[in-house]
Amino acid sequence: MESLWKGKAGPPEREVRLEILRFGRDYLACLGGGESHLGAVAWGGGGSLVDYPHKEGPIARALAADLGQFLDAQVLVVAGLHFADLTKPGIQEVLTNARLICQRFKEDWQSAKTGS
Fold first, then answer.
1. Hey, how many other C-beta atoms are within 10 angstroms of the C-beta on 85?
2. Considering the entire predicted model, what is its pTM?
């Protein structure tokens, strides 16, 4: 296993972290925030599977599908985010931060591939 990329988005109280690891020819994406934990698992690039239904399930599935298509590879996503006393606007902020960090990874990956 080789760590390829790490990043974070959002203010400390709503920060979301993403790490991408190469796992042979496949990838492992770890998404965490607040009190990170093992919340949901999703597989992208050949199907979608969530083994443990948890609140993070929808974002794990979306990230797995997005990264699987982007990387044209199998991607396993492990997602666990827990923020105390999260309000509906806070949930939206966390989701926005998760989308933002995924977009940053894709932009960095493209830049590295094209050398720009």
1. 5
2. 0.91
pLDDT confidence bin for 38, thresholds 50/70/90: confident
105 close to 18: Cβ distance less than 8 angstroms: yes
Q: What is the pLDDT of residues 43-80, one digit of tens each?
A: 887 666 666 667 888 888 889 999 999 999 999 999 99
Task: Render the chain in DSSP notation, one character per residue.
Answer: -EEEEEEEES-GGG-EEEEEEEETTEEEEEEEEES----EEEEESS----SS--TTHHHHHHHHHHHHHHHTS-EEEEEEEE-TT--HHHHHHHHHHHHHHHHHHHHHHHHHHHT-
